Amino acid sequence: MRRLISIYGWDTEEQPIVLWQDSLVESESDFIQSPSATFRYVFYNELSTSGSMEFGVFFAPSDPDVYSVTGWDSTGAVILQIDREMTPVEKSEEEYDAETFYVASEMQRSSGSPLPFTYYPERYRYMIADVGIGPDSLLWVRRGTFTELFFDIYDLSGNLLRHAIYPQSSFSWQTEITPRGIVAWELDPLDGYQKLYLIGE
After folding, report:
1. What total number of domains does the chain contain?
2. Which of 103, 153, 170, 198 to pair with 187, CA 20 to 30 A apart?
3. Range of the structural domain that residue 66 is part of
């Protein structure tokens, strides 16, 4: 299985410009022994990407060990590279169990049948959960290592300027970072119904 980020030209036979790619190679016996790794790769290891003609394309991998953000312009040239040393953060038992239950329940709801195996989440939180240009035309990077909404805010040269924290805790925050503000919601709200939050500068 392979994932990649590429620039494709419309109505052209030119080869796409590959910006980033990874892959997961497993034998049948690997899959039988540990189907959770494949399941996470296909369904839950989402790639954090954001882009516009004005600012370029920004990307952060879903990784429990690596904090890295890369930016490219429309030609595929690197315009930004941020790499920081961070200590991995293990999920709490409550968080681990909540994710296990959510994934099994979501599969039951969406397909009408249970998962044919026991799902085991990644033990560590991803370093980065989302990335994008915020309402101040700066790069906002949401850390996945916090249960609160915690953002590192950089200028477009990669200098860390400040942090922004929305102190409400949740294991399942989802965000969309846009120039009009940051939209946030819980994927699995404890009170059972969705709320939508709009966070400004």
Report:
1. 1
2. 153
3. 2-86+125-199
